Amino acid sequence: MSKVLVVTGSSRGIGAAIALLGAKEGYAVAVNYRSDREAAEALVRDIAGQGGRVVAICADVSTSAGAEKLFSEVDQALGPVSALVNNAGISGGKSPITEIDEDRLRRIFETNVFSAFYCSREAVKRMRGTGGGGSIVNVSSAAARHGGMPELAHYASTKAALDGMTIALAKELGQLGIRVNSLRPGVIVTDMHDEFGGAKLIESIAPTIPMGRPGTANEVAEAVLWLASERSSYVHGAVIDISGGR
Ligand code: NAP
């Protein structure tokens, strides 16, 4: 029986790269998405075409009911989860602090933080049930450390919350053989930057990155799969930068 990998928000970008690499490494993969069914199904065809076991599941993980739906469909299609990647996230769009409102804050905290709580809750119930332990990887951001772009304090705050959750859950779950870690990507080439100028924005930030270039979704996926696997068996409660030195 292959191990089961659940990647939230994996219809594109970093999540899609994690799903693809996970399948290559032998996981049965659950591709989760909220709205972009076409992209999720294209990814599923791609993975299945390479011989992987994969399913696409539409679920809004920013809600408790959405996370429950995701995991019960994973149970039925693939079996109990062994590795969870809390990847779904949004920028929330720019807003100066004087304009910040309840709707924006609620939406970003529900998507970036609450989702990780809901999905970890569902995953831990199953990992504990099988007695086989497991691994949870939270996709945070270097913004948690350096504050990120101007007028995105709400985004940086959600990622700092995720890192706090990682450290606390590591204490709670270590004895159960469930490892929990955070990865903090820096600037990674994905559609997420489109609303801020896309390639132009990335080009303007590149000189401030010690490695002189943005990262790729695949480079993040490599680190996630390492953290998900036994190859990182003593890495626990860690918050790891993957940011080209920035
Ligand atoms: P992206 O290209 O915008 O993709 C986001 C993914 O999340 C999409 O598949 C989207 O699916 C899904 N999603 C959003 N809300 C969801 C919800 N409520 N339920 C289920 N799925 C949801 O973003 P990305 O750049 O790959 O970013 C992935 C993660 O890395 C995020 O947590 C982000 O904060 C983090 N990160 C990114 C960078 C970067 O430079 N790109 C840097 C640091 C950290 P639908 O389209 O179907 O809604």
Protein model, in words:
The radius of gyration is 17 Å and the shape is globular. The protein has one domain (about 5-240): Rossmann fold, CATH 3.40.50. The chain is of the alpha/beta class and about 250 residues long. Helix 3 runs parallel beside helix 4 and helix 4 (about 100-130) packs parallel to helix 6 (about 155-175). It is built from eight helices and seven strands; from the N terminus they run βαβαβαβαβααβααβ. Strands 3-2-1-4-5-6-7 form a seven-stranded parallel sheet, sandwiched between helices. Helix 4 (about 100-130) links the parallel strand 4 (about 85) and strand 5 (about 135-140). It has helices spanning about 15-25, 35-50, 65-75, 100-130, 145, 155-175, 200-205, 215-230; strands at about 5, 30-35, 55-60, 85, 135-140, 180-185, 240. The relative contact order is 0.14. Helices cover about 45% and strands about 15% of the residues. NADP nicotinamide-adenine-dinucleotide phosphate binds near residues 61 and 141.
Structure, briefly:
The chain has 8 helices and 7 strands, in the order E-H-E-H-E-H-E-H-E-H-H-E-H-H-E.
Task: Record the SSE blueprint.
Layout: E1 4-7, H1 13-24, E2 28-33, H2 37-49, E3 54-58, H3 64-77, E4 83-86, H4 102-130, E5 134-139, H5 143-146, H6 153-173, E6 178-185, H7 199-205, H8 217-228, E7 239-242
Parallel strand pairs: 1-2, 1-4, 2-3, 4-5, 5-6, 6-7
Helix pairs in contact: 1-2, 1-8, 3-4, 4-6
The structure holds NADP nicotinamide-adenine-dinucleotide phosphate.
Which keywords apply here?
7-stranded parallel beta sheet, binds NADP nicotinamide-adenine-dinucleotide phosphate, Rossmann fold, 8 helices, 246 residues, alpha/beta, globular
